[in-house]
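Bump. Still looking for Toluene monooxygenase structure tokens.
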Amino acid sequence: MAPFPVQGITEGDFVVVLVPVDTEDPMTAVAEKIAYHAVNRRVPEDDRPMAVRHNGRVLAGDATVIDAGVAPLDVLEVVYP
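Sorry for the wait, here they are.
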């Protein structure tokens, strides 16, 4: 387990944020950590489940940052598929 910086943006937002995640965090936790900075601030809350998109593909919810091949400071998008 190690701190791992990523850039994140939530669907419907215009601000890219720098978010510290953990190398062992599943994508469900990464989505929550990124969305925390936008939902109910600039983006309305949505009841649908969140997913993480990286380089155009939606990642499995149980994949870790390392499993998904994410590099430090890569941009991850939180989307509602």
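The first strand starts at residue 3 and ends at 10.

Edit: fixed formatting.
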